[in-house]
Design brief:
By secondary structure, the chain is an alpha/beta fold. The chain has 2 domains: 285 residues, 3-Layer(aba) Sandwich (Rossmann fold); 76 residues, no CATH class. The strands form 4 sheets. The chain has an 8-stranded mixed sheet with strand order 3-4-2-1-5-6-8-7, sandwiched between helices. Helix 6 runs antiparallel to helix 7 and helix 6 crosses helix 9. It is globular and about 55 Å long.
């Protein structure tokens, strides 16, 4: 390692020590929830040993053609003010890569364009961003370029990252860009304009988030442990500062086979949340305005508790029921798919509800406004 980078390795050593001590104070389930088991399977390197390795997280983790195909149509909606923000972000990223002596200093075109398009999606679907300073919480920021753009635009930004390498890349970048307006959270969390929450601090008993306007989870939602995703929802929508509604999640993925499908939908409805697709592969999740939501897993002990549910549900007219088909998760915007065997006791219960439709011998729908 060069002398230049040796002088700047303090944060890496500080992070490793803080994580080691922090893990000693949280339960096994929290450690499991924030483990990076998908990357353990694929072999993606999520830890670095020296600052010399930071350059690997600078750009190029996504295919150039796929980023352009998705991001350029969105970028066409950018205003002159938005483009000025992008220009400032590109200049900062380039100077950052030069300052840390990356092998090929660049403005990280691929990743920056991708995050710029996500910024435009947030603005488009959260109109308050046009008129006031918002507090935005990002889970799994990756390179941190969305946080950089949001900070330049004047919003407050809070980041939660479980990967040591990505946390360090984000932290060095945000500190380079915002200086004393940034807090890395390693000496305790102090919320500033730009703030980091180390994952073990997030899992400490009694931890609460400030009032949030918006949550965004993008690629990370396809990589998260389902238990980690539930815990994020609990700490956000379940916190005293954010439990009254109005806050929403905007994400550009709805999950993979691990987090998505049955597991994701079940988790959302445990927190009285519903998700709708607002445009191609862009989803909004927010508190449901329906009287209630039930999730029924066909492998549950439904038969033992059905009579208790029936007594309660007779008093309620507007509940949704979710389950999964034999081919995986199945749901529609205008109707919720109910896949059950003909002899399943829940079928007779469904027939008592307005909006029930039978499509085939083993497929039934309970319609509801989505």
């Amino acid at each position: 390692m060069t002398d230049f980078l040796s002088e700047r390795s303090e944060k890496l050593e500080k992070y490793n020590l803080a994580e080691m001590k922090g893990i000693q104070r949280i339960p096994n389930i929290a450690i499991e929830a924030f483990s990076l088991n998908l990357w353990n399977i694929t072999g993606f390197p999520y830890k670095i040993r020296t600052i010399d390795e930071l350059w690997r997280y600078h750009d190029g983790m996504h295919r150039f053609d796929s980023v352009l195909n998705r991001s350029l149509p969105i970028a066409k909606e950018a205003s002159l003010e938005d483009l000025n923000i992008l220009e400032k972000a590109a200049d900062i990223v380039l100077k950052f890569s030069e300052y840390y002596k990356f092998p090929t200093p660049t403005p990280a075109t691929i990743n920056l364009i991708k995050n710029f398009s996500q910024y435009l999606i947030l603005k488009k679907n959260h109109p308050d961003m046009h008129s006031k300073k918002c507090t935005i919480f990002e889970v799994g920021p990756g390179t941190g370029y969305l946080g950089l753009i949001l900070g330049i635009a004047g919003h407050s930004y809070i980041a939660l990252e479980a990967s040591q390498a990505f946390y360090l890349y984000q932290s060095y970048l945000l500190e380079f860009a915002f200086k004393e307006k940034y807090c890395d959270g390693l000496n305790g969390i102090v919320y500033k304009n730009i703030s980091h929450i180390p994952w073990w601090e997030f899992n400490k008993e009694g931890f609460t988030l400030p009032k949030l306007d918006l949550i965004t989870i993008n690629n990370a939602i396809r990589e998260m442990n389902p238990t980690g995703f539930r815990h994020v929802l609990y700490k956000t929508f379940g916190s005293p500062n954010n439990s009254k509604g109005g806050m929403k999640i905007i994400s550009n993925y709805l999950g993979n086979s691990t987090v998505g499908g049955e597991a994701l939908i079940s988790t959302l409805h445990q927190f009285q949340l519903e998700t709708r697709e607002i445009e191609d592969n862009v989803f909004i999740t927010k508190k449901s305005d329906k009287p209630g939501l039930f999730y029924i897993n066909r492998r549950s002990i439904l038969g033992k508790i059905l009579h208790l549910q029936l007594k309660f549900l007779k008093k309620v007219k507007n509940y949704l029921f979710l389950t999964t088909s034999n081919k995986g998760s199945s749901y529609k915007k205008s109707s919720i798919s109910i896949i059950k065997d003909s002899n399943d006791p829940v079928c007779s219960l469904m027939k008592g509800f307005k909006g029930y439709e039978e499509e085939s011998a083993n497929t039934r729908y309970l319609n509801g406004d989505w």
